[in-house]
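Quick one, T. Sequence first:
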Amino acid sequence: MMSETATTYTGPLGSTIHVLRADADTIAELAAIDWSRHFRRVCLDPVRGLITLMSPSRPHEDLTGILDDVVDVAGSTLAGAAKSLRSLRLRGQSEPPGTGMEPDCTFYVGERARGYFAALRDGEAAADAFVEHTAPDLVVEVEVTHADEGKAERYGDIGVRELWRLHGRKGTRTLRVELLALQAGTEPRLLDSSQVLEGFTPDDVCEAVEEVRISPTFRERADAVARIVHRRQQASVRVSEEKAKYAAA
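C-alpha cells:
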C-alpha cells in the first residue's frame, strides 16, 4: 500500500526530489513501470519502503560528469583499471527485479574493473551477468538529501566497498566531501583517505573537482587529475620512508 501523501522538496544543488512511502510488495509491482521516461534518477527500495524520484539540476549533472573524469583517471593510475557504470540500479540478490538503489555515479576500480572488461570480451550477455552479480567498488552521491538516510548501510549490504558523499550548494563552488568505508552488517566508517583509490583524500577530491570543472578539454582534465595523483603518490612514498627510518632507529 502506498502512502497518501508525497513529500516534494528542492535539494541543495537545486534538484527536485519526490519521496513516497510504500510497502515492499507495492514497490515490487511499481518496478514494472518505466520510471526513467519521466525521471533521471529513480530509487525503488523495498527494504526502506521508499520510492525516490529525482529531476536533477544542471549543477547536479555537472558534478556527476566531473566525478566520472576524476575517478576514471585516478582509478586507472592508482589501481590499474577503472570503469564507470553511471547510474546503474543496485539491488540485493533477494530483492525483486527492477527495484534497487540508483547512485549518481558507480565504479569498478582495480580487480573488479579488470573482471568486467574480461567478461565484456566474452560478449554483452557475460558483461550483464558480471554486473548483476558483482557489486561496485565505489558509489558517489553528488547531492545529499533527506531521502538518503540509511542509503550507506544499504550499499554496504549490497557489497559496495566505499561511498563518497558530496555536500555542495547551488550558486557556490564550496564543496565538502565525506569518504565512507562500507561493509555488510556494520555502520559506515568515516575515512581520512580512500581505500579504493589508495590514499586519495577528501581535499584531493575537492581539488580535482575544481580543476576538472574549469578544464575545457579531456587532456587538460586528465592532466589535472594526474598531477594530484602524482603528488599523493610522492607523499605516500615520503611517509613510508620516514616510517622505515623510524623503525630502523
